Amino acid sequence: MSPAIPNATRPISRLDRPWTSASTATVVGPLHAPTRQALVEAIARTAERWPESRLGWSIDESGRRWRRPAPAHLDAVADGMVTDLDADPSLDYGRFLTGLVHDKREDRPLAFSVGHDHVALRMSHAIGDGRALVALLSRLLETAATGEPVPFPPRPVMPPFVSALGDFFGRSPKRVLAAARAIRHAPSAAEVATRPWSPQRVTLYQRIPGELAAEVRRWRKTSASGATSAAVGLSLVMRALDLSGVPISPEVRVLYDVRRYLPAQYPELHGNFSVGLLMAMSAAMPAARIAELIARAGAVGRPLTALGAGLMFGRRPPASPVTAPLRPQAELAFTYLGRPLPIERLPWRAGRVPVWSGSVQPAGPQGLTFAVTETGRAVHLSASFHAGVLDTGRIGHALTLMAADPIAVLNGRDSPRPAIENLGV
Question: What's the superkingdom here (predicted)?
Answer without folding.
Answer: Bacteria
